[in-house]
Design goal:
heterodimer, A: 116 residues, mainly alpha, B: 246 residues, 2 domains, transmembrane helix (chain B), Brnchd-chn_aa_trnsp_permease (chain B), transmembrane (chain B), Branched-chain amino acid permease (Azaleucine resistance) (chain B)
Chain lengths: 116, 246
C-alpha cells in the first residue's frame, strides 16, 4: 500500500464529516446543552432507542447477508451458521460476548477448512 | 490495579487523575471487546475501499462504533451521502440520553459547560458504562480529568486496532481476512444483545435482523431505514402494550 492509498482522497473525508461527524456531534452537543430537562425514561426516547437498535440490527444483517470483500468468499450456510452458533454459545455462557464471538469465528473457520 | 482512596494525595492534580483514567482501561473486559470491534472496523474499511486515514479519522471524530459501521456499510454499498447521513443521525440519537445521564456525574457547582465539551465528545456506550462503574471511586473535582484519561486511552486502543485490522485485511489470506470481517457483526450482535435490558430492545434487535432482508428486496436505497423504523416501531408497540396491560 502506497502513502497516497493510505491517505485517500479529500472528497471521502468531506463525506465522512458530513455524513459521520456532524450527525453524531449534534446529539452529543444537544445533550450537553439541554442536559437537565429530559426524562431518560420518556416514551419518545424509548421509541428512539428501539429504532436505533433496529437500524444497527439491520446493518448486522446486511454484513452477513450481503457480505463485503473477503467475507463474500464464505458460503451462505457458514456465515448464517456462525451467527447462530455464536448466539447459542452467548446464551449458554450467560450472555458472554466473548463466548459468542469466539464460537462464531471457530464455526466459520472450521467450516471453511472442512469444506476445503 | 485499584484506584487510590478518595482522600489520597494521588488525586491532588488533574494530571495524576488523567493518568489514573488512562490506566483504568486495563481494568475492563470492554477494552478487549472494543479492540476486537475496531479491528473489524479497520478491516471493513479496507475491504470497502476506504483509506487508512479515513478509518482513523472516523474513529477520532465520530467515536461511535455503530455509527462508523453504518457509515462504512451504507456508503460502501452505494447509498448517497444523504441516505447515509440520515441512517447515521438516527443511530446517533442514542448518544443524547447517554450524554444527558453521564455529565451530571462529573459536574460540580462551579463547572462551566465548555469544560465538559471534550467529555461529551468521548461519551459513547463503553465510556458511559465505565463512568457509572469508576466515577463513584473518583473525587468529584477530578472526575473530568479522569474521564479525559479513560477516553483518550480507549480511543488510542481503537486507533491501534483500526490500523492492525486494516493491514491484516490487506495482507491476510482470504479465509483469515473473512474471519476478521466477521468480527464486526458478531461483536455488535452480542454486545447489543447484552445491553438489551427491556423487551422493546430485544424485539427491536430480533425484528431488525429479520426484517432487513425483506426490506432489501425493495431496493429502495433506504432499506436500512425502512426495516429500522418498522422494526423499532413494532418494538415500541410491544413495550406500550405491556405498559397498558400492566
Amino acid at each position: 500500500m502506497s502513502f497516497a492509498q493510505a491517505i485517500g482522497d479529500w472528497q471521502a473525508l468531506v463525506v465522512l464529516f458530513v455524513a459521520g461527524v456532524v450527525p453524531n456531534q449534534i446529539w452529543r452537543m444537544l445533550g450537553l446543552w439541554f442536559g437537565g430537562g429530559i426524562d431518560e425514561g420518556s416514551e419518545l426516547l424509548v421509541w428512539v432507542r428501539a429504532v436505533a437498535t433496529a437500524i444497527l440490527a439491520g446493518v448486522i444483517a446486511q454484513i452477513v447477508v450481503e457480505p463485503p470483500g473477503a467475507l463474500a468468499s464464505v458460503p451462505d450456510v457458514l456465515r448464517y451458521g456462525a451467527a447462530a452458533a455464536g448466539l447459542v454459545a452467548f446464551l449458554l455462557a450467560r450472555r458472554s460476548i466473548f463466548a459468542g464471538v469466539v464460537t462464531g469465528e471457530v464455526f466459520m473457520l472450521a467450516g471453511k477448512w472442512w469444506l476445503g | 490495579m485499584a484506584l487510590p482512596p478518595l482522600d489520597s494525595p494521588q488525586w491532588n492534580s488533574p494530571w495524576l487523575a488523567f493518568g489514573w483514567g488512562l490506566r483504568s482501561i486495563t481494568q475492563t473486559i470492554l477494552t478487549i471487546v472494543l479492540f476486537v470491534t475496531y479491528l473489524g472496523i479497520g478491516a471493513l474499511a479496507h475491504d470497502t475501499h476506504f483509506s487508512l486515514l479515513w478509518a482513523l479519522c472516523s474513529t477520532l471524530f465520530v467515536w461511535a462504533g455503530p455509527a462508523q459501521i453504518i457509515l462504512i456499510t451504507t456508503l460502501g454499498s452505494g447509498a448517497t451521502i444523504i441516505q447515509s447521513a440520515i441512517a447515521v443521525t438516527v443511530s446517533a440519537i442514542r448518544l443524547f440520553p447517554m450524554v444527558v445521564s453521564v455529565l451530571p456525574l462529573m459536574r460540580t457547582p462551579t463547572t462551566k459547560r465548555r469544560e465538559l465539551v471534550f467529555a461529551a465528545h468521548l461519551t459513547a456506550v463503553t465510556l458511559w458504562v465505565e463512568c457509572h462503574r469508576f466515577l463513584p471511586l473518583v473525587p468529584r473535582e477530578r472526575r473530568i480529568a479522569f474521564v479525559h484519561g479513560l477516553g483518550c486511552g480507549l480511543v488510542s486502543v481503537c486507533l491501534v486496532a483500526n490500523t492492525v485490522g486494516y493491514f491484516l485485511a490487506a495482507n491476510l489470506t482470504q479465509t483469515l481476512g473473512a474471519a476478521i470481517l466477521l468480527l464486526t457483526p458478531l461483536s455488535f450482535l452480542f454486545s447489543t444483545a447484552r445491553n438489551s435490558r427491556e423487551v422493546a430492545d430485544v424485539v427491536a434487535l430480533v425484528l431488525g435482523i429479520f426484517l432487513y432482508p425483506l426490506a432489501a428486496k425493495m431496493s429502495s436505497g433506504v432499506d436500512i431505514l425502512v426495516s429500522g423504523v418498522v422494526a423499532g416501531t413494532i418494538a415500541y408497540g410491544v413495550h406500550w402494550w405491556r405498559e397498558v396491560r400492566a
